[in-house]
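Hey, quick one: can you model this chain's 3D structure?
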Amino acid sequence: MKRKFLILFMSLLFCCTYATAQEKSSLQQRADEEAEKGNVAPARFNYIRAFEDYVNRGLMKQGVECGVKATQLYYKENYYKEAFDLLRRIDQQVIASKKSPSETAQLYYYTSKERLQMYIKLRKLDSAKDQLKALENHANASSDETIKNDLLYTKAIYYYTFGMNAQGNAVFKEMAQKLTASKEYDKVEEAYKTLITNGRHSNSANIVAQSYSSYMAWKDSTTILKHADEMKELKQQIAANQKAIDDKDSSLTTRMTIIIGLCVLAAALAIALVVGAIVLMRFIVQTRKQKKVIRLANDNNALKAKFINNIAAQLEPTLKKLDTKQPEVKALIDFSNHIQTLSELESTIDDEVELEEIQIPAFCEQLAEQIKCRVKNDVTVKVDAPKMSVSINKEYVSHILTHLLNNAVLYTPEGGHIAIDFKKRGAHTHQFLISNTGSFISEEDRNEVFKSFREVKDLTQGDGLGLPICKQMALKMKGDLEIDPLFTKGTRFILELHS
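Sure thing. Here's the predicted structure for all 499 residues.
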């Protein structure tokens, strides 16, 4: 209960903080109202209080904004000492806030800009020049495109104020080109008008003259660009209209043709709906029949498996009475057992298998020992298994690997190699690989060897059910058994399992 209350409290605190961060404080709102009324002293007082309040809450950007507005109201009444003192105080708070380098540069930019404005107003060229360099450094460090554009505007004012008209024109031209390239004509025009207005307010005939001259030159060039854009749009609109006119024939004959065509189309759609409904009904009936056939096939498979098991169970006592030393009898007994095993696997393919934890090295070495005494001369048996344990169905895995190894013993020539490898392929996937040198299984035979009853032959030569049984066991363990097509020095079987 206490934990839930704490989470609720923290959530409410976060929501309140977030909402506060997004809206102006009451102190800033009060300062804005006083400033709009022209009450300089009350507005300045409330901006300073808002600055202190924002800083105490860690909202440095809003705090610097209010501090800068208070500074402007100081030097508006020629209180330059108080204005510079307040800017130093703001910088100290920026340092104490320990913001990131880019955020710190943004905040320093605003305070440096106000110092530059005061030096420009006081006509202190050297101090203004030093402050402009600092302003450029802060703008570059801020990585803020808006600030960089503002820097161009501020530099233009600086150059025009101190009679450096060529530099002022170049800087303002750069800013105008950036905005013009992105077709933000309104912003460029607004910037020129603002510059002209500032020149008039500061009684600077030079700024007004240079700004107006640059503005008229820009406006003439922009008018051409605008006309080109308008002509392009007009041509596109004319082309679109012409295409629409060409696509629409206004003649009565064409309209009647369209109406007749629509009527024919409606009739065709009605016929199509009727035919579609008939086809749909037939499809539903056929689907029901197919489902019935599938159910019947599944039932027949289950009955077939049960029948085969019964036949095998009944034949087993009789077959055991025969001489098992006879190859034909032994082959018949093995065939009966294989048929029964394959039938049981197919009928229980979706049943879960039991798993047990085994040590891989010992398990693989045991399999290798079983065949070492039966290999041909100079055939080496190699085991490569890491020291680890996995959960498998030991009965099925042992059966599969033993069958594969027996085949390897049979088909590996003298001087050949047989390998048992274990590879971990993922967090829950591993593989047993049985490879041997010797004959290579062709591509067309790789899938055929896993099919049951694919050929009729003498049972004494094998019934061909060994690999199909191994395949069914792998599938029942939610794995797979396949032949590696990339192994060309003989044959390699891959048993992939998932834990």
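One thing worth noting: Confidence is low (pLDDT under 50) at residues 1-21.
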